[in-house]
Write a structure and sequence with these properties.
Blueprint lengths: L3 E5 L2 E8 L1 H4 L8 E4 L4 E5 L14 H20 L16 H20 L4
Parallel strand pairs: 2-4
Antiparallel strand pairs: 1-2, 3-4
Helix pairs in contact: 2-3
The structure holds zinc ion.
Zinc ion binds next to α2.
């Protein structure tokens, strides 16, 4: 089931799960990436494979959180929030970000369900 397709505000993103050998192309510690220019999300497939040195007991939870994280990046990219804006203060009082989540949350929930990321 590779790739999964997810609708992000009308744009189809393809989610690829990289095989362990391909995951080596990601920097150490990076579990996933989102490229808004190709509309591709890459996930390190080995996230779900216990290494024996894992401090997390349920790696499926980590995998799904990583997938939601990358899909959230895609929503921000497709909304034009590409990092040219900055703000001071904390996220909890950032009205733009709160409005953004309030408006996008239903669409994000649908995308998370499409990607089996919940
Ligand atoms: Zn990120």
């Amino acid at each position: 089931m590779n790739p999964i397709e997810v609708n992000v505000l009308g744009q189809t993103y393809k989610v690829y799960e990289l095989a362990p050998e391909d995951g080596g192309t990601m920097e150490d510690g990076v579990l996933g990436t989102t490229d808004w220019t190709t509309h591709e999300i890459m996930l390190r497939g080995s996230i779900k494979e216990p290494t024996g040195n894992d401090s997390l007991a349920n790696l499926d939870v980590l995998y799904r959180e990583t997938l939601r994280h990358e899909i959230t990046h895609a929503f921000l990219f497709e909304s034009g929030m590409t990092g040219s804006d900055t703000f001071e203060g904390d996220f909890a009082h950032n009205e733009l970000m709160v409005d953004w989540f309030a408006m996008q949350a239903p669409k994000m929930l649908k995308a998370f369900e499409e990607a089996d990321a919940l």
